[in-house]
Every structure is written in C-alpha cells, then in structure tokens.
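Aggregate trends can hide what the representation actually does to any particular protein. The sequence in question and its structure tokens are set out directly beneath this paragraph.
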Amino acid sequence: MAIAAPAIWPTLIESPVFIASIILMGALFLACFVIPWERLPANAYLVIPILDLVVIGLARNGAVPAVPGLGVLAIFPVIWLSASGSYARTSIFLSFFGTLLITAPSVLQKFPNISPSDVATAILLPLMMLAVSLAIRFASASVRIQRRRLEIKDAELRELLIQSRSREKLLKTILDTIDVGIVAVDAEGRKVLVNDQQKVFQQAASPAGSVTENQESLQLMFGQDKVTPLPEDKRPINRAIAGETFADYLVWLGEGSSRRAVSTAARIIQNDDGGFSGAVIVYTDVTGLVEALSGKEELISNVSHEFRSPLMSILGNVDLVLDEADALSAAAAQRLEVVQRNAERLLELVSDLLVSASTVLAVHPRRTDLAGLVQTTIGSAQAQADASHVSLHTDVPAPLWANADPLRISQALDNLVSNAIKYSPDGGEVTVSARTGEDWVQLEVQDTGMGISEEEASRIFTRFFRTQAARQAAIPGVGLGLSITKTIVERHGGNITCQSKPGAGTTFTMTLPAEDAPLS
C-alpha cells in the first residue's frame, strides 16, 4: 500500500491517519526482529497481532473512501490470535470487537444519517472474523486433542519399546547363560537366533582351520557310531525345517579330542492358520553321560567275561563228577546237582549281561517261519509251565513267514513266554497268537497272571528294572530279559509294546517286518 499509494491513490498520501498506519506497521515489522522475544514471557509476542488490528483500523479509516476493503486484512491477526491456543476468550472477544472498531468509525461519521445497510456492513465483517476465530479455535482444539492422544500413544509405545528391549536383553542373557545350545529358524530355514553355547557347538563341528558356523552342510556331524557322516536330511536343523518333531536324537559333532556327543530335540512353531512358521532346535552336551554309560558297559562286559571262564570250569568239573554219580552218596550227588543248577543260572545271567552290554547286537534276517519258532518255544517251556500249573495255548497260522533272524526271534520268544509263566505264580493261561498285515507280522504273548501298573509298564523295557510285585513274590530274575528282547525287535526294524493292568494279566506285542518288507 505504501509503494502503490503515490501512483494509484495520490490522495492517500495526504491522509495523516493512513501515513500513521504505515509508520506503525513499519515499527511493528522491525520490532519482530529487534525485540528478544525469547527472553520475554511466553505469550508476549501476541501484542503484535493486537497492534496489527490497530494498524489495520487506521489504514482502513485513513484510506476510505479510496480503498474501503482494507478491513479484510484483519483476518491475519485474527488467525494468529485464534491459532495461538492462548487466552481463548480474549482472542474471540478481539476477533469480533477488534474488527468492529475497524468498521465502526466509517459508520459513525455518517451520524445521524446512518442507514440499516451501513449498520449491516459494519457488523458483517466482525461476524465473519468471529466465525473464522471460532472455526480456528474448534479446529485447534481438535488438533490439540489429537496431538495429546498421539503423545499419549507415543509415550505408551516408547514405554513398550523400553520394556521390549529390556525383555530382549533379559532373554538374550538367559539364553547365553544356559549350557544348552539353541537355534531358531524361520519358515524359510534361515537362522533367526543362535545363542552362545550353540556357537561353541558349531565351532567344534567345523573342520580344523575353517570357519563354517553358518554352513550346516560343511559341519562334521556323525551318527551314533561316531564314524558314519550324517546325511543332509538326517541333520537336526534340516529335519526341523522339514517339519519333524523329535527328542533325544543323538549325534556326534567334530572329530578328535574335541568331539562332543549331543542330544538334540526340535519343536515346530505354527502360525495362526496352523501352518509351519519356523522351529526351535535344542542341543544338549551329553558327552559325559555317554562316556559314563560306555564305561559302565565296558565294566559289565569285562566282569562278565571274567565270571564266564570260572563258571565254565565249575560246570565242566561238576558234569565230570556227576558222570560218576554211582560212586557218590545220594546226599553228595544231590548237593552237586544244586551246584550245577545254580552255576547254570549264573552262566545264563552272565550271558544276559554280555548281550546287554554289547553295543552291537547283530541280527541276520532271512525268510523265516515264525510258526515253527513258536512251536519250538512252547515245547521248550512246557516243563516250566507244568511245574507252575500254567496251560500253554497257540493261535498261530502255519506257515507264518517273516523277514527275521530265527535265532534272535527265538531268544525273544523264549524271554516273553518264560516271563509270562514266571509272572503267573498261581497258575493260569499263556497264549501266543499272531496276525498279519500287508508289510508286517504281529506276535502276541498274553498271560492271565498278576499284571503290572501303567507306570511300571512304561518302564518295563528298562534294563535292570523289576516290578514291586516281582520283588515281593521273590520271582527270580535281574530285569535284563525284556531289555534284550526290545533290542532284538528294534534291530529287526520292528517294535514291541506292553499292555497290562494289575490282576488282569499282561500282553506283549511284537511287530516285525513281513517276508518282503525291507528293514527300516
């Protein structure tokens, strides 16, 4: 306006009111830069828009009638005051009455010839400024409310982030403290978590002079014999990625003096739809336990061998003496028979210990008629059954062909039938039955004896385990027969189960590969 006035509105230069407004506006403009507002109270700057209203009032009334529309410039200080968020009532008051003071002088100059249109014109602009102020106030209030909500949300998120980081540090500390290796993989098989102990295992499995911690296929990993390298699909992480769940899967890592025996387990992580989204694999160092068990097996084997030789000598000499029983008194012959019977029992026990201690129980499967083996077992056990008042029955189709080692399966059948008779001290029945499937054959040995509890049935195949009832009834045995039987069946690629209830008898079920079925 100051620049354009001389050329466009020369009369404005002659208006002292207009000149005063231009000078005051310049002074306010300079004040914005010169005054150190940061040192003044927080809302001190609001004096600028208030004085702007005065400047605009002077400019409008000084420019009338040449430029009557200058009053519209009041929208700028009105917006400034309303958007500041301070002094809400004062800013609304000034939005209306401050603007009214701008428009009123031109109307009052016409007094007493003021028309309704003059009044309407004077009031219209203040009403518009009031509406603008209220709209800005409401909008600013809404924005402030939204801002407060966002600040609250932001504070909550920051708190959750702090808690999350704290828990992450705690979890990492726990995972790195335990002596169990842990690996977590995602659905694509990528490792997302590896704790410190697992890094130690990976380093131990790396070939000497190389770094292959993250290359599963290059790590030295062997089966239970410590010699055979594990195929790719049999390695714990690859099995878990394939969706398998397993436990107590023993592997050997590394070679030489740093070789470690590791028991592995895996659990699948499922997404909300039940699909595969990853897995967690746990590695536990059991080298000490495996070596202790190996030492125990070696001790049992050595002691058993040492017992076997003198027992064979005792039996041999007793047999020689009994061959000349006619030269002995009846009492002496009876005592020698007791010696012979107990020596044979000790020899049988030593044989069981040797078989139990053997890390490799060899089987040689071939086409075998199980019906013939059952009949042989029944014939051998008949005397024991008669002495215990137990009747023996069979329900086995003949021939019954299977892919089995006749010597080992006969040993397993002998153990099962002998146990069935021993655990029927009050007499009863023992039945051997069979049924076949497409690629399997099942043999069942069922008795009507004392039976065992469910908890004892779950431990019945553990070496040296004997039930409480057997110990109370003084039934002879050391708890090796069923363990050996289980080993024999599993070496054939089959399995054996036990079902029993106290007082209701026991049923053992052996499942073996059929004639043409391959060993698993």
